[in-house]
Amino acid sequence: MATAVRTGDAKLVLSASDASDGSLRRVRAGAAESGTPHAAIPYTKFELGRIIGRAPTGTVAILDAGLSARFIKGLAEAEPGRYDETLNLLSTGKRKSRRTAR
Q1: The CATH number of the domain where 61 resides is what?
Q2: For residues 99, 57, 38 and 73, what is the CA-based torsion angle, rounded to 10 degrees?
Q3: Which domain holds residue 33?
Q4: Quick one: which of 23, 30, 53, 97 has the fewest CB in 10 Å?
Q5: Which residues of the chain have pLDDT under 50?
Q6: What is the SS3 string spanning 53-98?
Q7: Total number of domains in the chain
Q8: What are phi and psi for residue 93, nearest 5 degrees?
């Protein structure tokens, strides 16, 4: 996941509601540095792992722009206002790309 965020391949980074403080600090810092939208979601590590078909995990990077937008749109519909900024970033594509910045 960290490589996908660093290289700009990640379109969205998600954090489970029970992710450790250390994981959250690293994910938020990496996402901010790369310009990748980050969202803390209302799912536990166990639930997030089940959603993606993996073992429990605290963080996930989504590489597909369409899937990222659909996922956040679903969350925004369930919790109006909470994910508006992230949805806006994904729908407008306004994020800095480390690949083009080099």
Answers
A1: 3.30.1330.30
A2: 110
A3: 2-87
A4: 53
A5: 97-102
A6: CCCCCCEEEECCHHHHHHHHHHHHHHCCCCCHHHHHHHHHCCCCCH
A7: 1
A8: 70, 20
